[in-house]
Amino acid sequence: MKKLYRFIIIFVLLGLCIQPRLHAEDGKDLFVTKCGKCHTRGDAPDVAPVKYASSQWKRFFSRDKHKRKKDISGEISPEEITTIEKYLTNHAADSDLPIAAGLR
Amino acid sequence: MMTKKTVFRLFLMSVMFFWVYPVMAGSILVDKDLFEKIYRRQMILEKKLEKLENADPGKKTSTDLTQEEFDEIADRLDMVETKSILDKVRVSGSLRTRYDNFNFEKIARLDAFGVPNLKDQYDGESTETWSNRLRLDLRSDVTTNIIFHGRLSYFKLWGDHNYDTDAEFDGDVHSASTSVSGDLHVERAYIDYFVPNTPISFTFGRLPGTGGPPTEYKDNTTRKSTWPMLMTSTEADGIIFNLDLDQLFHLKKGMFRITYNKNLQDYLKTMSEKEDRSDDTRSVTAAFEMMVPGVNNSLFWLSYVKVYDLRTVPEKLLPENLKILDKPRNSGDFDVSTAHLQFDNIFNTGIDWFGAYVHNEIVPNKEGTLIGMDFTGDRQTFTPVIELGLFSDSIKGNLGEFREGDAFYTGLRYTIPIQAINYPKIGVEFNRGSKYFMGGILISEGGEITNKLGIYGDAYEAYYIQPINQKHMYLRLGAIYIEHNYYNPNLFFGTQPKSDMTELNIYTLVDVRF
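Above: the input entities. Below: the structure tokens describing the complete assembly.
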């Protein structure tokens, strides 16, 4: 059992002490904070990446369809929109979604 | 004294200030032509407005649809909507065709008792072995908080059934993604029920327990199962209590799970008058996982599994000249502790890395399964020869001895940054299992004859992934080299005989996802 505890300690230290960002955000945080402002508070319908297929998300952004409902250019920068678009298309209904018990 | 001239000037300035300025400020001097142009424009606009106000609302213009046309489109959309609502199950899947070459060296022949004889060895090979694997994945969002998942699987050698693995000997835990006969079978069928407005969810049914991390590296996909591969990769029915720690404590991708499984169930155990029934094999698992803070697409995993009342030696495994004469109701208990760490695309270098460690402790039953041998050849008279227990037997006199085992598994994958050839990947893996390692990795998911993760020895693998289509199709070339230290991988009964056997498996496969 000593061996096991040693390994667990090493894994915990590795897992919890590695703080630097090893690579860039995948856009989820941006999506949650920016889009969630309206889309989770009843001001607008709930939205999730799986609502549309990736091609539909691409069309949504290329035609700036959000503008029909609300102009968000003052609230979200073009760079942020690009990041959000990438996140939504990568996690769209037809994307290769992760599977495990209790994951939506 | 002001002169008359000065008075006259002051008079003129007063007139300019009090009379001329207000007049100028209230009106604009407009050129006559411009005025007429504006006037004509105004008249045209007024006429257009009057025409629009008097227009028939039902009359079609170039941009409008008639009510009839609009209704027709609405009817068509109704049909699409109805179909969409009735399309409750989304189907996706993958088809894999695989080519294998196997070379074995120093295979020990079995003696009359079924024990490998190290002094009598031979080499063997199985060349040009083709197989197909089909997986149909199902998903139905019954409601926003009730989700069904399923997977139907099929694996078959071309023109044959399946590899002669232990899959046929009993039940679920020996049949990850495969069926002996090559039939389509249910690998997964479970419901995720998310309790509304809480971080709690329940998963029940035939659970997602096969091909877990880091299998997704080799399969060029995303995570497709719950448990890390070194911990277990078996089909199992059970119930999982999930606590979403991300929702509860904002612990990124944090999840705590408690699982109850029935790995072997004998429903006649209490109804039958026979005393040779077996106890049910049950397992309880506590598992914790989270994303390493600040590192997206990482996985940190700790778990503990306790397995109660493991089954005894299956009769189907014995050759015809051997027979079970007596057996206890179970062969003992064991537990498995697992730690797993995984990082994708470290420092944006394209390197993915994983490491896993498993430690297991076995408490065997002191009573083993009594095996009889037919010395006469009549298949009627069997003489008791040995008692087999977990990693022990009566001949060695070690029945009931406590055992500890462990295994280590690590590897990395590198994505070659060449867009023109769809970012191919190369990877290497290594794993080692000790003499008494006993995880839940039994047979392979189809493809390999030996599951390299279940061995008592060392295994090396190198592979190259060539995406043919970035999303739907890839080719994998690989080689697995295994050095066995002990025989009978994944078979826990009897004292493990030593082994010098090596295996080399060179393979090519094409996977298409749809």
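Note for the figure: Chain B touches chain A through 47 residues (CB under 8 Å).
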